[in-house]
């Protein structure tokens, strides 16, 4: 029995770029001809991301069929106040409060392979198949890979297997913090070429040796390249100075996507004609053109107070660190991380505690919303923050208490800055790529409509879709629903969508090792480079 379902994750992929790369431009060779053929053979549509279109909540929603208010993953890191300071902890798989499709399918007797998905470390111990997590340092790959003998099998059977290349190489990347030089940016693109090839080689090897029912692999270079090389890819960004460097960078980016197209073709071919194939992204991408320093604005409006710092090098380093110094005695609202795009209101739970008294919370929040609405472009009067969502509006569920009180959407969809700098709003010296709430869904294969564009669906629907594709019942308490408009009438008649027993996650301690403080620090440096941290 071959693969029933092939899932190819393209982190951050957007139709804005893919449609350009699958089209003919003059006499230029089409960059992704195989993807163009999938468009014709199958269906496509927008896959709406999580309210904050960010890698951790979005991929976890896709892997579980639940929104962040239920699974509890909101960001790369969780921030907690204690002793008049703020502390950060990296999320991992143990923080997820609901069951993943990997476990659901395994328990139903399906054999799975899941490669490079974030927040799958440490892996659950009920996996029937193979799991190699993404987003961890290379030293932890062996202990977080299941089954335990897989790591040595890969070293033995794949001549090009290199765990340093497979995982994020912090030694290579730590030089690049927030802004790359021209040479560093070029190296950054080149770095992802062999890395994606290795993930592809492992995927192909495991399809042949494991013959999984569900084969899933995620290519994350799409997101990381688009962050740093957006203006070499976006056809709507007009370059006024297309010099030799521009053309070299453009050519490198196209080489990446041309290779990716070849990997997709080989995986789809290996899956066979009876498989159903799904290409998805966790969010889309667009252009960010300005910096919005939200904590500076909160300071100007009287919600946040900066701590007076001595004029020392140590103090300056602290100001440049991930989170600047706050005077907690005078702070009632703040943003803890750029990637959260959220504002936390400090609530006094007990008499004498710092923050807003509970009985004044609603009035305080309404006033804060009004003040945020008044942040406007002085030249046009346009609102800088176009969306302000209360957490119960977008994060309802048993994990809502961990969400920020307000979620902000900027007019260019960028991430906020939390640094103590002025002005509040400043144009970027160079446009960059940032996340957009509209990701992609492409489907083809047995029982899927051909050459159709379907109505947008939500990222939580992907989990239900994959279970249905495997022939399994969808848990009736899962938020996601199968987008039936992808399928032909005969497919739905022969294989109707069925709901099954609800899922309940049983928390178990795993024996996987934890990251050291040094490794956590390096991971945070990586996030800085991608613009999620400062």
Structural key phrases:
globular, 9-stranded mixed sheet, hydrolase activity, 21 strands, 34% helix, 534 residues, 4-stranded antiparallel sheet, alpha/beta
Write the layout of secondary structure elements.
Elements: E1 5-10, H1 15-21, H2 33-41, E2 43-48, H3 55-64, H4 68-71, E3 77-82, E4 85-90, H5 101-107, E5 112-115, E6 129-132, H6 150-157, H7 163-166, H8 170-173, H9 182-210, E7 214-219, H10 221-233, H11 244-271, E8 276-280, E9 284-292, H12 294-300, H13 313-319, E10 333-334, E11 342-345, E12 347-348, E13 356-357, H14 361-373, E14 385-390, H15 391-394, E15 406-410, E16 425-436, E17 438-445, E18 452-453, E19 457-458, H16 461-469, E20 474-475, H17 489-494, E21 499-500, H18 517-529
Parallel strand pairs: 1-7, 1-8, 2-18, 2-19, 5-6, 5-7, 12-13, 20-21
Antiparallel strand pairs: 2-17, 3-4, 8-17, 9-16, 10-11, 11-15, 14-15
Organism: Desulfolithobacter dissulfuricans
Protein name: Nucleotide pyrophosphatase
GO molecular function: hydrolase activity
């Amino acid at each position: 029995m071959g693969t029933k379902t092939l899932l190819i994750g393209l982190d951050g992929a957007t139709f804005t770029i893919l449609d350009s790369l699958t089209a003919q431009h003059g006499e230029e060779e089409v960059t992704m001809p195989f993807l163009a053929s999938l468009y014709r053979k199958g269906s496509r549509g927008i896959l709406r991301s999580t309210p904050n279109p960010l890698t951790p909540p979005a991929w976890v929603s896709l892997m579980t069929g639940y929104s962040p208010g239920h699974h509890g993953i909101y960001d790369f890191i969780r921030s907690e106040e204690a002793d008049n300071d703020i502390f950060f902890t990296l999320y991992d798989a143990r923080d997820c409060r609901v069951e993943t499709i990997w476990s659901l399918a395994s328990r139903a007797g399906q054999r799975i392979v899941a490669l490079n998905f974030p927040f799958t470390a440490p892996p659950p111990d009920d996996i029937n198949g193979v799991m190699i997590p993404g987003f961890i340092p290379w030293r932890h790959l062996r202990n977080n890979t299941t089954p335990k003998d897989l790591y040595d099998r890969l070293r033995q059977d794949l001549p090009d297997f290199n765990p340093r290349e497979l995982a994020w190489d912090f030694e290579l990347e730590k030089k690049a913090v927030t802004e790359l030089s021209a040479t560093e940016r070029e190296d950054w693109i080149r770095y992802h070429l062999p890395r994606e090839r290795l993930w592809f080689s492992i995927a192909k090897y495991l399809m042949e040796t494991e013959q999984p029912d569900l084969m899933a692999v995620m290519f994350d270079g799409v997101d990381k390249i688009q962050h740093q090389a957006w203006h070499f890819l976006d056809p709507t960004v007009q370059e006024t100075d297309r010099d030799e460097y521009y053309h070299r960078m453009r050519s490198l980016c196209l080489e990446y996507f041309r290779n990716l197209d070849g990997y997709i073709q080989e995986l789809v071919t290996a899956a066979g004609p009876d498989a159903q194939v799904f290409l998805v992204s966790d969010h889309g991408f667009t252009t960010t053109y300005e910096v919005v320093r939200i904590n500076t604005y909160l300071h100007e409006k009287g919600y946040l107070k900066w701590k007076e710092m001595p004029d020392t090098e140590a103090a300056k380093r602290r100001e440049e660190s991930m989170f600047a110094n706050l005077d907690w005695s005078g702070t009632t609202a703040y943003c803890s991380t750029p990637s959260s795009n959220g504002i936390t209101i400090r609530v006094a739970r007990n008499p004498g505690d710092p923050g807003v008294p509970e009985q004044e919370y609603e009035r305080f929040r309404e006033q804060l919303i009004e003040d945020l609405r008044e942040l406007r472009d002085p030249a046009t009067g346009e609102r800088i923050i176009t969306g302000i969502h209360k957490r119960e509006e977008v994060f309802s569920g048993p994990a809502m208490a961990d969400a920020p009180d307000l979620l902000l959407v900027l007019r260019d969809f960028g991430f906020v800055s939390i640094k103590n700098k002025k002005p509040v709003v400043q144009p970027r010296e160079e446009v960059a790529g940032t996340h957009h709430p509209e990701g992609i869904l492409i489907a083809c294969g047995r029982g899927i409509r051909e050459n159709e564009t379907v109505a947008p669906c939500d990222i939580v629907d992907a989990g239900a879709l994959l279970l249905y594709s495997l022939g399994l019942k969808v848990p009736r308490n899962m938020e996601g629903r199968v987008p039936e408009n992808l399928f032909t009438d005969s497919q739905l008649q022969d294989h109707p969508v069925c709901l099954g027993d609800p899922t309940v996650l049983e928390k178990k301690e795993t024996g996987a090792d934890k990251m050291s403080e040094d490794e956590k620090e390096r991971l945070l440096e990586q996030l800085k480079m991608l613009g999620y941290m400062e």
